[in-house]
Design a protein that fits this description.
About 55% of the residues lie in helices and about 10% in strands. By secondary structure, it is of the alpha/beta class. A hairpin with a 4-residue loop joins β4 and β5. α3 packs antiparallel against α4.
């Protein structure tokens, strides 16, 4: 079975050019949608993925119609390969069942890894630059009064940890850390008193 998939990003864009190209190719079934490629879930693409069986072919007008990013496109291409589905892109003249198409998959994979490595490198450089200016990463610390209020509620044992966190706007990890620190302080004071 030959499936065609066409997509435009907004309602006011026309699918006509893609539909004409896919029909001229001779698709058996055409799935279309008007939705931005940045959306994680695209209903018609999901429907297409459910319908595919080994030996089927997916035809698209352009690679940009299929993937949200290089990483997303590669994941779909790899999914098709594992299922035994052939992907054909008309604009780029690519057929992943050919040696040239397989080369494309390799290049896409390398590009994805390159993007990931660049992101990690930029993040690390940004953190180093921020630390050099005296800034720390992570969330800003909660003000002491809020944490103190949460600790009092915890000691009173009138509320659950989840309720205290909701009332005070704290993460459970923040509350548990404050409890631990308070217990350590109390233990340190007790040990200091005993050594006298």
């Amino acid at each position: 079975m030959i499936f065609g998939y066409a997509r435009v990003s907004t309602d006011d864009q026309s699918l006509d050019r893609q539909i004409d190209a896919l029909n001229a190719y001779g698709v058996d079934e055409l799935l279309t949608e008007k939705m931005t490629g940045t959306k994680r879930s695209r209903p018609e693409l999901d429907r297409l993925l459910d319908k595919l069986r080994s030996g089927d072919t997916v035809v698209i007008e352009s690679l940009s119609r299929l993937g949200r990013s290089t990483k997303d496109l590669l994941a779909l291409v790899e999914h098709f390969e594992k299922q035994g589905v052939v992907l054909i892109s008309l604009k780029e003249n690519i057929d992943i069942s050919t040696p040239t198409g397989k080369l494309l998959v390799t290049v896409l994979s390398a590009l994805c890894q390159f993007e990931r490595d660049l992101t990690v490198q930029r993040t690390n450089e940004g953190l180093t630059a921020a630390r050099a200016r005296g800034r720390k990463g992570g969330r800003p610390p909660k003000d002491a009064k809020t944490v103190e209020k949460a600790l009092k509620l915890y000691k009173a044992q009138t509320h659950s940890v989840a309720e205290i966190c909701e009332l005070c706007g704290l993460a459970q990890g923040t509350l548990y850390k404050a409890i631990r620190e308070q217990q350590e302080q109390e233990n340190h004071i007790l040990e200091g008193g005993k050594s006298r």
